[in-house]
Amino acid sequence: MKYVKRNFLPGRIFTDMVDVQEQMDEWMATVADVRVHGTTHQRPIDRFASEAQVLMPSLGQGPLANGAVSRALWPKTIW
User: Fold this and answer.
1) What is the pLDDT of residue 74?
2) Could you give the CA distance from residue 30 to residue 35 in angstroms, rounded to a whole number?
3) 3-class DSSP state for residue 6?
4) pTM of the model
5) I need a labelling partner for 36 at 20 to 30 A (CA). Which of 17, 50, 64, 69 fits?
6) pLDDT digits over 20-64, tens only?
7) Residues 6+ apart with CB under 8 A from 48
8) How far apart are CA 49 and CA 47, in angstroms?
9) Which pLDDT score is estimated for 55?
10) DSSP string, 10-51
């Protein structure tokens, strides 16, 4: 989210939510998805293409579709 806030939003003016989406789509296609990511050293569009076959079967399934259940443990200092 920080990347979007610092690189997409500054200096832009939007007329409505449709305009936001159109500008975001253009920026994603020409800037964000084609740059080389600093951590993975891959372009996000290439990385997604290589992972898509693994990710797509889970679309539309709930978070517990595979039957796995886990419990989050929070440090007592949070409460």
Assistant:
1) 55
2) 9
3) helix
4) 0.59
5) 17
6) 999 999 999 999 889 998 888 989 888 888 888 777 666 666 665
7) 33
8) 5
9) 73
10) TT---SSHHHHHHHHHHHIIIIITTSPPTTT-S-HHHHHHHH
